[in-house]
Structures are given as C-alpha cells and as structure tokens.
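Field reference: sequence -> structure
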Amino acid sequence: MNNQKKFGVWMDNHHATVAGEGEETGTPLTILGHVEGELISPNSNEKNSNNHEKTIQGKFFKEIAAHLVNATHIHITGTGQAQEQFIHYLADTPQFKNTKTEESTSNKMSDEKLLEYLAGRM
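Structure field:
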C-alpha cells in the first residue's frame, strides 16, 4: 500500500494539532496546522445551549477534517471524549468512510513531542 496518506491529531474539546506526511508519500510527519474551537458561552436555555454546542463542535470537527485530505489512516489522541466524538464524526462523513482510525489518550505535548509520539504509532 504505497499510496497511504497518514495523519495524526492531538485534540481536546477546544484545540487540535494536525500532523501529516508531506506531499510525497513516506515523507516525515510535519505539523499541518492548529485548529482552535470556539468557547461556548453559558445559556440559561438548555435546549438552545445543547444545539449551539453541537453546531460549534461540528464546525470544529469540519475545520480539523479539512487538513485530512485523502486520508487512509488517522491516529487521534488527546484528553477527554473529543477523540471518540471526532471518530464518530469521521465515520459519518462519506469522505472518510474507508479511513482506518485509531485512538489513544495522551496529555498535551509540544509539536515536536507529538510528532515523535505519532511516528511511533503509525
């Protein structure tokens, strides 16, 4: 499988760091971008608050996915439940239907440490 496009994402509920191979398959992983999600302001109406939260989360996930062009393998790591929710988002997105996803849990780390961490898992 020479034409695999591998990516790694560290994420929590409001921040994501996306790493991937360069244009040539097999090139070392590099940081492709950082995505910042919007902070959700408190709302006294629970239904409106939940709808707003889902909208904000969808926008955040879409911005992350924009970096994952032609992905065949994605390793997602981070804190909280964001990774699991993002994996479900990818599974429900036709573009990522056949993409292999893996997840792990890790604390926030520098870009360099993230690249080392992902290189050992992909």
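Note: The domain at 1-16+50-122 is CATH 3.30.420 (Nucleotidyltransferase; domain 5).
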